[in-house]
Each structure stands twice: as C-alpha cells, then as structure tokens.
Amino acid sequence: MQLWSKKNNKNSPDFWKKYSALFDGKTKQKSWEETRFVAFDTETTGFDFEKDRVLSIGAVGIKDNSINVADQLELYLKQEIFNQDTVEIHGIRKNADLDQISEEKALQWFIEFIGDSILVAHHARFDTQMIDKALKRNGLGALKNKVLDTSTLFKHTKHQVYRNDFNRPYSLEELCKDLKISESDRHTASGDAFITALAFLKIISKLRRDKKIQKLKDLFALSS
C-alpha cells in the first residue's frame, strides 16, 4: 500500500514539500566549509531503469573536508523483483536476514537524509536515475540536488587529459588503485558510498594542489 497520494505536489507528503522548499531559490549561498556533501550508492537488481529496482541505498555525509561516520544511512528495501544473476555482485539474497523496508519508506528516509546537500556518486547518472524512477513510481518528482560524479572529476587529476580519457568510464576499482583506497567493502551500498567519499576527498586534494579548483563553482565547471 502506498504511503501517499499520486495526484500532484499539493497532495505530496510533508517530507517532499519540505525537501522541495529547500530549492526555492531563497536560501543563502553556502561557503565550501559550510557545504554538506553526501556520497551515496545504490545496489540494484540490474541495469534497466524501467524493469529493475533498488535493493539497498548507502550514504555518508562529508563536510569541511571530513567524512562524518556518524552521519550515514544504510537502507535495505523489500524485494518485489529478484534477479539471481546479480546476487553474486551485491550478495543480497531474496530471503536475507536483513531489516528491509518498503520502497516508499526508503525514499522518504533518503530524501530526509540528503536534504539540499550536494550529491556525490561514481557514475552518478545510474544511481540518480534509479532513484528518480523510484520517486516517479511513487508519484513524486525527480531529485533536485546538484550532483558531482567522481568518475568525471578523477579524469581532471591527470597531468594531461586527452579527449579519449573523457570517453573512458573509469571504474571505482581503478580509482581505488590509483588513489590507494582499500576495496575491502566493495559492492555493498554503504561500503561503496564510503569508498566514493574517500575518493572524492582525495580527488579534491589533488585538484587543489594542481590549482585546478579554488571555489565550489570550479568543481561543477570540471564535472559538466
């Protein structure tokens, strides 16, 4: 059973109204140190935006160049769709002994967690599209947050960026190897979110050292 009506924004749940109000254009511009980033990742039943579903969401907050391990979210969703072929990747079995919640409740908790933070993800289009499809199924709009992709930002850490480098989809494993990050918790949403947060901070450090970024707006210029 759905938690809210699928009619229009006027009938949207309070959490969505509060979320939408954060992007009404009246809020004060934050400095880099004041800005909260949220690194996040999803594990899914597959790669089809229409047919597949989100199995879990992991997210962790980043502020003032630090990962706040107390500021994190880990959600497991009840499985309406099951794909045995992807179990080897994410390890989430159909009848796993996990505290699973409905898609509706997971979306609410995720939206309340991220607020107006800047989202950070690796190959971000996939994760944001999967969330957007889930939101649409539940009568809500798309994510409104600004998004940064660690795959794109990573390419700018190279001393010389060639055109074919931007056509190459660097994997999270490649970032871990290059940036010397442990892969011990790969292929869990919370583990990948934490790895992405570490990668993001290391990438920012390199970009600053190379004088490729100074202000927050420079990050978006590089990622566009």
From TrEMBL:
KW Hydrolase (keyword) present: yes
Protein name, entry field: 3'-5' exonuclease
All copies of domain Exonuclease, residue ranges: 36-209
Pfam families registered for this protein in UniProt: RNase_T
Keyword Nuclease: yes
Keywords per UniProt: Exonuclease, Hydrolase, Nuclease
Lineage of the organism: Bacteria, Pseudomonadati, Bacteroidota, Flavobacteriia, Flavobacteriales
UniProt xrefs under CDD domains: DEDDh
InterPro entries linked to this entry: DnaQ, Ribonucl_H, RNaseH-like_sf, RNaseH_sf
Species the sequence originates in: Aquimarina gracilis
Taxonomy, superkingdom: Bacteria
Signal peptide: none
One of the record's GO molecular function terms: exonuclease activity
